[in-house]
Amino acid sequence: MFGSVVRNRNGLSKLADFAISSSKSFRGPPCAVTQVATLMKLEDPPSYDHIEFPERRRLRFFEKVPQLQQGVRAPKTPKDLHLMRGPDKIHNKLQYGQYGIQALTGGRLRWGHYEALRLTIGRKMDESRMFAIWRIDQPWKSVSKKGIGTRMGGGKGNIDHYVYPLRANRIILEMGGKCEFKEVEKILKPLAKILPFRARVVSHEILAEDAKQEAFVKKNNINPFTFQHCARHNFLGCRKWMSHYDYQWHGKYR
Asked: CB neighbours of 231 closer than 8 A, spacing ≥ 6?
């Protein structure tokens, strides 16, 4: 980026040699040659005029146990695995259009995961120019558990903890502000690895590119033996082991 200077044996640069030799033949007032380092091909800094900041820039604290009315007993819920099956078709886009963490499969978040995300982001984030918001609610689904050595029977066990179930493609949280993707990725990538399911760091450009690539593959696919085609025509008797979820999502989601 900076211009290089080549010096001769006497310690003078070629540019200085040229100035000395030209000054001997030039009859006029003496002149001085100043070497200046210039910046070439420097891109303009990004503009953040379109960025909108929320009222609260830090992640909100969630209670470990949902607050119930006085005299109301906490309900015990079943597993409800359908709450973690298939894609999330509503909360799969970035609300502020910058960066976030996206779940790739279904799963359940515990209160400890909330605190790990909140404390780490609050410690590494520059609140003066960045923000972070939740895209999920607090843990609300109860998970019961019986003690070690308890005999079978006797009804459902006591409530042990609460979780938040979510589906694939769900946006867990968002980060943004006057920052670049490389800066946010250093903070969110280690957090995406500690979650109990597969997740990734995404941006608005990444989500748009994935949608474009999926539409391109669907339009230009020349292989007629797709999952949907094989299931419809019962190739190799595949209907014996297929479920109604396979007919709905064609083997893409579980």
From this structure: 238, 239, 242, 246, 247, 250
Query: Which tokens go with 78?
Result: 């079943």
**Model confidence at 29: pLDDT above 80:** no
Residues linked to residue 161 through DSSP beta bridges, in sequence order: 143
The two beta strands, 107-110 and 199-203, are unpaired
Residue 84 has a CB neighbour count (10 Å cut-off) of 19
Enter the pTM of the model.
0.78
One DSSP character per residue, 12-63 reads: -BHHHHHHHHHHHH--SS-----------SPPPPPP-TT----S--SPPP--
> What would the two tokens of residue 4 be?
């290089």
| Whole-angstrom distance, CA of residue 191 vs CA of residue 195 | 7
At 73-128, the pLDDT tens digits run 999 999 999 999 999 999 999 998 899 999 999 999 999 999 999 999 999 999 99
Task: Give the pair of three-digit tokens for residue 27.
Answer: 């009859």
Answer yes or no: are the C-beta atoms of 216 and 222 closer than 8 Å: no
Burial class (CB in 10 A: 0-12, 13-18, 19+), 117: buried
pLDDT of 122: 94
Query: Which residue in the block uniquely carries the two structure tokens 């209670």?
Result: 63
pLDDT tier at 193 (50, 70, 90 boundaries)? very high
Q: Quick one: angle between helices 181-193 and 111-124, nearest 10?
A: 150
